[in-house]
Specification:
heterodimer; A: alpha+beta; Cytochrome-c3 Hydrogenase, chain B; 3-stranded antiparallel β-sheet; 12 helices; about 45% helix; globular; B: alpha/beta; Rossmann fold; 5-stranded parallel β-sheet; two-stranded antiparallel sheet
Amino acid sequence: MAAKRSVIPFGPQHPVLPEPIHIDLITEDEKVVEAVPSIGFVHRGLEQLVTKKDFGEMVYVAERICGICSFGHGYGYVKTIEHIMGIEPTDRARYIRTLLFELSRMHSHILWLGLMADAFGFESLFMETWRLREKILDMLESATGGRVIFSIIRIGGLRKDVPDDILKGFIPELEKVVEGIKSCEKVFLSDPAVLSRLKGVGYLSKEDAINLGCEGPFLRASGVDWDNRMRGYAAYPSVDFDIITSNDGDSYARCYVRIQEIYQSAAIIRQCIEKMPQEGIYVPIKGFPNGEHMTVIEQPRGGACYYVQASGKKFIERMRVRTPTFANIPALVKTLQGCDVSDVPILVVTIDPCISCTER
Amino acid sequence: MRISKSPWLLHYDGSSCNGCDIEVLATTAPRFDIERFGIINTGNPRHADIFLCTGGVNSQNQDVVRQIYDQMPDPKVVLACGICACDGGIFKDCYNILGGTDTVIPVDVYVPGCAVRPEALIDGVVKALKILDEKNEKMKRGEYRSLTSSEYAAKINGDVKEAGDSEGEEKTDA
């Protein structure tokens, strides 16, 4: 006998979600046959603020697109404006930006590991990962003065320099974080109870990942070696790193890719500190931006596009952002089809959803 | 101060940038750890005593915020976490933002900051504890009932003239 269809609402207020998203799960018994997402709970309409804030102030608005990847959003906007205005930031500014970007990536990925642990019901592992994350936040705070919103970046460089002795102090701290993540890795990647929740859950094939336009670790976990950092911006061409991929395409692979990226980010930061040039951090800017440009950078969640259109006035004409979570939602809907109702929280968390980015 | 109860928290994102949300979670994580006092972050409005609302409230979210507030049992305290929840903050001029949390539900404690720091949040929760105790005492005497969100809406729109203060309705027994 065919099971009766019923609709289970998921969200917008749900214990597993730090942010509101609503998904209607159409189920037959315990199987989800269809998932219909509806978004808009965090839409602020900040792109329209370009009419009220000038192009310099918009850096701070861009940082507040999202509190987790705040540095990346500020950087993406600044990079676009700098390209339009033909400004080349100094080498030291480029290295410090790369370093802060990678610290943000580490804090974002560790945060994700904690949320994942929370989603499969391992509360002490959540606490352990968030304890490690505080060390990263301490580093960011000593460098910039803020824990999650930094406001250190500006058009032409940085607002303040990070002294060398603070940067040198990062190396032993990073060692401790990497040690801690290694002990967590044992639980995430080899504990039988955790494996039973992750292995084979939410499989996405390589073809589907490409066709649905996935981004970031979600794409790389399905075996596609695509990382926008390889396009060469900031100090990435001068540091040595590889693209981390996995061919499994399930939740376990996404966990694996993100854990490896934490180690990789630590290695990039170490290289940045070793190669840190000694010079100024700011190039003065003249006039107003005139022209249009689009930039793609690799955020912790994947590629994010920034488009700016300016016409030589104090206020730019248009700013547009395309964020990675938006690109990952079609694939999320695909992986939700055919899964168990009990796996829905895990699958929603595996794309590392950042609703604030998506809806702006 | 003496903590007589361990209130449970409920967190909801009005429409913030996420910065305050992760700081709310960090407040319960090991560094700041208000869970050591039994102040647990719960997911269920029916179990919650303190409502932590982050971010300004947008058009689509206002009904959800109202609904969560109405589902919480009395006595309840609402904390506006971060400058956006206090008055709209940097997003005040956005077309989709109605304003701070107090545009839809009554707020007891305002905790500013962008993003709000966990230390400030702990201070806010401690202030909320005192308010919670006071409301509890009044409730036992039958002198207090918190406003529902629709009553609050009527009050701020000026439809009903109430002699009560901005903190909440003072109901006297007839």
